[in-house]
């Protein structure tokens, strides 16, 4: 979905935490004594035959950090597996348009070892090239992360981590360039990646999805606009608990600049949806 055009809020930590508007290389986060709203518990995970499946363990939070306004990140920041969640103006976790993010990453920034709890607002905004390493979304809000770079060279890279309970999209691509999703797991979601279907400025966007474990229910891994030249490259995908194969690996749309996009096909085609049957494993 389109992102907010409201003037971004400067990053502030809640309560008596550090009063800073941006975080630079090596900056440590400050603790705040509060607890987030708890995400819905997960059901046991089983494969298509009903046999139990063991997935990678999600990290336990080392601290609780309520966040009332967007935190601006520059440089490289390690969150130490603290859990961040929205309060006040960031206290939304629905699909309302125009929510602000918990984190806003400048071009070239990297964020690692962070848990985003609920409410999650609009997750993370990446303003150019950025890296999200071992970031875990416990209950996705509007979107988990949005790529907003303006150059074809801008790349949002997600390495490790996971997301669950996404009523709509996990990763939204509104800007230019490429999104890379690697060594990731996603559970209970609608769409893992979506190239904006109705942004006022459209362009060719690209996504690489590699070594991702998907646990049903889910609707689609990649939604792309073939009429604008989008591509989705899929490899080493494992889909768990989808005996009827309802999760669509790659859905093609006819994108628009206003109104609603329309689906026009799915499956590998050698042009936009770039994968083969051997790239998808069902368990």
TrEMBL record:
PROSITE patterns: TAT. GO terms for cellular component: extracellular region. The keyword Calcium applies. Its main location: secreted. SUPFAM superfamilies: Pectin lyase-like (SSF51126). It catalyses: Eliminative cleavage of (1->4)-alpha-D-galacturonan to give oligosaccharides with 4-deoxy-alpha-D-galact-4-enuronosyl groups at their non-reducing ends. It is found in: Secreted. Pfam families: Pectate_lyase. It comes from the Bacteria. Its EC number is 4.2.2.2. Its cofactor is Ca(2+). The keyword Zinc does not apply. One of its GO terms (biological process) is pectin catabolic process. Residues 1-30 form the signal peptide. Keywords: Calcium, Lyase, Secreted, Signal. One of its GO terms (molecular function) is pectate lyase activity. Belongs to the polysaccharide lyase 3 family. Catalyzes the depolymerization of both polygalacturonate and pectins of methyl esterification degree from 22 to 89%, with an endo mode of action. In contrast to the majority of pectate lyases, displays high activity on highly methylated pectins. This is Pectate lyase.
């Amino acid at each position: 979905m389109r992102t907010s055009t409201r003037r971004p809020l400067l990053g502030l930590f809640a309560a008596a935490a550090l009063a800073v508007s941006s975080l630079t290389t090596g900056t440590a986060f400050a603790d705040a004594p509060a607890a987030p709203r708890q995400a819905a518990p997960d059901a046991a995970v089983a494969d298509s035959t009903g046999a139990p499946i063991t997935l990678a363990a999600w990290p336990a939070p080392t601290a609780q950090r309520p966040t009332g306004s967007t935190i601006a990140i520059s440089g490289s920041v390690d969150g130490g597996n603290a859990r961040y969640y929205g309060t006040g103006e960031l206290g939304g976790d629905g699909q309302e348009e125009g929510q602000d993010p918990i984190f806003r990453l400048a071009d070239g920034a990297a964020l690692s070892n962070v848990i985003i709890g609920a409410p999650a607002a609009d997750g993370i905004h990446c303003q150019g090239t950025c890296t999200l390493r071992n970031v875990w979304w416990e209950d996705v809000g509007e979107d988990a992360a949005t790529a907003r770079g303006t150059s074809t060279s801008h790349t949002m890279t997600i390495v490790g981590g996971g997301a669950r309970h996404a009523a709509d999209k996990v990763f939204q691509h509104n800007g230019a360039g490429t999104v890379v999703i690697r060594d990731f797991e996603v559970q209970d979601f609608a769409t893992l990646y979506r190239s904006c279907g109705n942004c006022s400025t459209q362009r060719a966007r690209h996504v690489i999805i590699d070594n991702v474990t998907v646990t049903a229910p889910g609707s689609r891994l990649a939604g792309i606009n073939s009429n604008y030249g989008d591509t989705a490259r899929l490899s080493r995908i494992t889909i768990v608990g989808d005996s009827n194969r309802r999760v669509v690996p790659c859905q093609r749309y006819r994108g628009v600049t206003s109104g609603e996009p329309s689906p026009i096909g799915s499956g590998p085609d050698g042009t936009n949806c770039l994968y083969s049957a051997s790239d998808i494993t069902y368990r």
